[in-house]
Specification:
The protein is α+β, with helices and mostly antiparallel strands and about 100 residues long. The chain has two helices and six strands; from the N terminus they run H-E-H-E-E-E-E-E. The chain has one domain. The chain starts with a helix and ends in an 8-residue tail after the last strand. InterPro entries: Endo/exonu/phosph_ase_sf.
């Protein structure tokens, strides 16, 4: 069986997926620190429990980081009862595809 150049390149391009997990206890500096540490250590996926969230009259807010795309299980939250209890961040990398 022969392999083409594309499949060989893809095999050589593989690397382990690095996952970072933390409970940040709804504390804004802990949330920021977790994202900064994950980025500095080049983690691909960041899983945060009890993320910091806030709500204004028109917006649902949480922490972001320029190296990651953020995903929440709910799009909008109106109160403490409906806020996300977890958040997932995926590194902005052309080799990673998150939907």
């Amino acid at each position: 069986m022969t392999s083409n150049r594309y499949s060989q390149t893809r095999k050589n391009d593989r690397k382990p997926l690095r996952i970072f997990q933390a409970n940040v206890g709804k504390i804004p500096p802990a949330h920021d620190c977790a994202l900064a540490l994950a980025d500095s250590e080049r983690y691909d996926i960041v899983l945060l429990q009890e993320p910091w969230t806030a709500r204004t009259d028109t917006r649902s807010l949480t922490k972001t980081h320029p190296a990651y795309d953020a995903f929440t299980p709910v799009e909008v939250w109106n109160s403490n009862d409906t806020r996300p209890r977890v958040m997932t961040y995926v590194r902005r990398d052309p080799r990673l595809l998150a939907d």
